[in-house]
Amino acid sequence: GLFGVPELNCPEGFQEAQDKALQESQQLVQKACSTPPGPETVMIFDQLSDSLCRVADLADFVKIAHPDFAFREAAEEACRNIGTVVEKLNTDVELCQSLRRLLADEIVMRSLDPETRRVAELFMFDFEISGIHLDEEKRKKAVNLNVRILDLCNEFLTGAHLPNKIDKHVLPEHIRYNFTAEGNYLQVAGLHADCPDDLVREAAYKIFLYPNADQLSRLEELLASRNSLAQLVGYDTFSHRALQGTMARNPETVRQFLEKLSDKLSKRTQKDFEMMTKMKMKLNPQNSKLMPWDHPYYSGALRAERYNIDPGLYCPFFSLGACMEGLNSLFSQLLGISLYAEQTQRGEVWSEDVRKLAVVHETEGLLGYIYCDFFQRPDKPHQDCHFTVRGGRLRENGEYQLPVVVLMLSLPHSTRGTPTLLSPGMMENLFHEMGHAMHSMLGRTRYQHVTGTRCPTDFAEVPSILMEYFANDYRVVNQFARHYKTGQPLPKNMVSRLCESKKVCAAADMQLQVFYAVLDQIYHGKHPLRKSTTEILKETQEKVYGLPYVPNTAWQLRFSHLVGYGAKYYSYLMSRAVASMVWKQCFAQDPFDRAMGERYRREMLAHGGGKEPMLMVQGMLQKSPSVEDFVDALVSDLDQDFETFITDS
Ligand SMILES: [Zn+2]
């Protein structure tokens, strides 16, 4: 069956797997409630979580990726059923009591190792949000808020992607063909940000972002409800709760980080905007004021003018085989790890082009499995992604349960005589996703609740972004990039030009991300909000971004990440800052340094989410970085490399 699970050889098997898991979980709940507080309590909780996650996580993947509808449907059903049980468990007072007894017992708590203590606290954190520790009345309120928030999230997500309709006569005839016609109306489904026609981008921006009253009230209710729930369970704001246990730890640190980053960027951003304005003046002299709909287009145009990177020239050097060789060679030099293709059993994979890799350490042996679902197929989501299918954990019998993950990409198939060729962007994504996979494979946590990538959001992208630094380094690329026909290596200046091209207008791009992150923090900060969400957007945009707010628009209603990344939109920037520091301090001098690779594994990857993230960073860098260090790392990455610049001009 799928992933080697015997009962999953047909869609009906999900029912069986689910029933088994639910039965097992019932027994574990009883066991947890009858066990005196001690390290065993945490182990039972993790076992309980494992029995449910093993089916739910697997089903989570199958429901979106399996080509067979019946499988997808069965998986969806299993997800729903397990979700309901998890919700029940989260409000099970007796179960919660058994954990509270442990956390309240200072002597026992002190005797636990840090990982066990942290995992106990993390389980409690999950209980807390359902208000289980509160009196009857407040608990009811919490349950209602949770239900309401879930609905609002779904409605907001749907609303964020809905097109806006407009009477076609409002738009000049010569640009109407850019939008989908529907009788007398035109549908505007996006920003058309890369369209060369200024007027089309302007129209799309103003129409797509035209405020929708329902969506606006949904957002305002969502933010207010999140705030009420957070306060009900004992936090100042939603942001305070969301940032508990993260690298940033609290909203104040995030605020400082974003503020300092914005200050440091502002001059560079100004320069970028000036360049874009000049470019606009050249192409459109009548109307040269730089507007928000111009940013992506003109930064692209500047990049093209300066570097004229043609991905097609790079592709022949990046065959999938060569890239995988490159990863294998990098991992073996850095970590003593090799990737081996393994034969799959009948029914183990969901599509015949899925490959299974065994991850093997030179002395420790098999560490886990990566299923590579790399190729396009109809109905497959078009998004690069890493899925944990089974978390690693120490079993009761002393064996280690090996982690299993899936990497999903959307690469073109090979054709007769031509292997699958990756563009530079795809190659970088492959390295990025492999960074997540290695985090999963090398995490050796005792508990699956904190396996590999199950760590705080602002730390989760560190291993993957670090791999991007490797993917952009000539010494690494030169090990594997060979023309698939001639065997010629990729010329060095092509690699450096590619890297430099990414820095064009990168300050303005980062500034935009800072603006979004600040907005997210304010929305999830102190309530009631001082002003309407639109007024806050306007104010923040002018202060933190720099391009003017356009009246009668409300970009925040399209900010779908507010749902999944509420109060954590800054995470990507912070992860990048850490990855940048690790790269510069530990690998830039020698990207194949085994001692550094071992330190990286020991200090960062091995702990998954089982250790406070800042302690992992300190262990790796052997110092405690300040907010300024974070900011400097990000900003110095924007500096041009003069060698390339000079040889180029
Ligand atoms: Zn990622």
UniProtKB/TrEMBL annotation:
Belongs to the peptidase M3 family. One of its GO terms (molecular function) is metalloendopeptidase activity. Its EC number is 3.4.24.59. Monomer. This is Mitochondrial intermediate peptidase. It is an enzyme of class 3 (hydrolase). Keywords: Acetylation, Calcium, Cobalt, Hydrolase, Iron, Magnesium, Manganese, Metal-binding, Metalloprotease, Mitochondrion, Protease, Transit peptide, Zinc. It comes from the Eukaryota. One of its GO terms (biological process) is protein processing involved in protein targeting to mitochondrion. The keyword Cell membrane does not apply. It comes from Glaucidium brasilianum (Ferruginous pygmy-owl). GO terms for cellular component: mitochondrial matrix. It catalyses: Release of an N-terminal octapeptide as second stage of processing of some proteins imported into the mitochondrion. Cleaves proteins, imported into the mitochondrion, to their mature size. The lineage of its organism: Eukaryota, Metazoa, Chordata, Craniata, Vertebrata. SUPFAM superfamilies: Metalloproteases ('zincins'), catalytic domain. Binds 1 zinc ion. Its cofactor is Zn(2+).
